[in-house]
Prior knowledge:
Blueprint: H1 2-10, H2 19-22, H3 32-36, H4 39-46, H5 49-54, H6 57-66, H7 96-120, H8 123-126, H9 131-138, H10 144-157, H11 162-168, H12 178-186, H13 192-208, H14 211-246
Helix pairs in contact: 1-9, 4-7, 6-7, 7-14, 9-13, 10-13
Amino acid sequence: MKTALYASQKLKGDCVVDETVKQDDDWQPEAWRKRTLNWHLLRGFGQSLPASLTMSTPFIGYMILYHSKIKDFLGGMGGLLENPDQLSQCPPWIVFSMRLNLVYCGLLLLGIGTIAYRLFAPEVVKGSRSISDYVLQSVDSVTALNLRSMYVTIKSRRPQIVSSFINRAPWLDRTKSLKTASDALKKNGDGQLTIDVLRAFYNVKNRHSNRSAVYFVLLFYSFGFLLLAIPGLAFTSRVLCMIGSDLGVF
Length: 250
């Protein structure tokens, strides 16, 4: 608990570059796409309840919206594609059947993206709201064995920053015995090294894990939300047209 309190004082916001690593002469900022387009960006929607519901779109969408056999049980809602739109003073710019298809396809893309997110996103991202939350959850329970394993991961993905860790804690190298590492960790009174390793590990998993899957999910989410926006924009335009007609503008 003492270490967690110390960690909460050290973690100011969700800054993703720790000051100790930044002081390393070999340190260089990561590419913009990795700092911005990462799993944490996708987590906001990917972990939400609406995202979970979109995964059922292929089944619920077909049963409710496209299956005409059940329309009598849903007040005529099923089989909507069979009913033509009635033209009005401001005819719909997109027919109802097309709007329905756009909504269905948009939800379907969001569902596929969410399935990919749940499959490929790192557990440290899915299980924590932010990097600070992850550190606070882990700082009291992490062991020397855990830190050494994290160090190996960091070294494999961002070798340019590991010298700052090994200079401060040579026992992170697996050439040292585990007992030596455990004893050294116990002597690490302020816990700053533990915090720095946890933060670096989170950033590596967040920014470097399954990069192709990140772009896949981002693409499906982008097109999904775009398709969902089209019917709303078309409907809003029609409402404005009708308002303008009532006011004599058109």
